[in-house]
Amino acid sequence: MGLFGKKDDMPGAGGTASAGGDPLAIMRHKYDPVVRLMHQLGVQVQTIDLAGGKLRLRGQAPSEEVKNKVWDQIKAVDPLYSDLDAVITVVAGAGAPTGPGATASGGSYTVQKGDTLSKISKQYYGDPNQYNRIFEANRDQLKDPDRIFPGQVLKIPR
Fold first, then answer.
1. Which of 70, 91, 114, 122 has the smallest set of CB atoms within 10 Å of its CB?
2. % of the chain with per-residue pLDDT over 70
């Protein structure tokens, strides 16, 4: 099982990824190892969406070394990456420490199945009642604090 979907969604896995499958979910699943690595290395993930039949991935890496590691992972997933439009820029100080309570300059979090803003708030702030901080920082993509979905990338304010 990946970060963005079920194993059944993966092309060639004998699942339901035929013409009726959700193209964004299929692409997110394929590049799940890349997004996981980006989070582990402190890359601020800015965009994950589908544009022109390709997965569009945007992020800011804290160093050239981190950027290169992300590209190495992309090539490990698919050496041609013809279905990916990735732009990883290097911005000094862009990386945020990851893990509970580690939000020195903010950061991002990819919603997983079973998450709520309260649960994420407890993980990052130690208080589930601080969920509104995350909701307000993500008003551009959230209309209701009770409606978040696996695969969404949320900004976590400090």
1. 114
2. 78
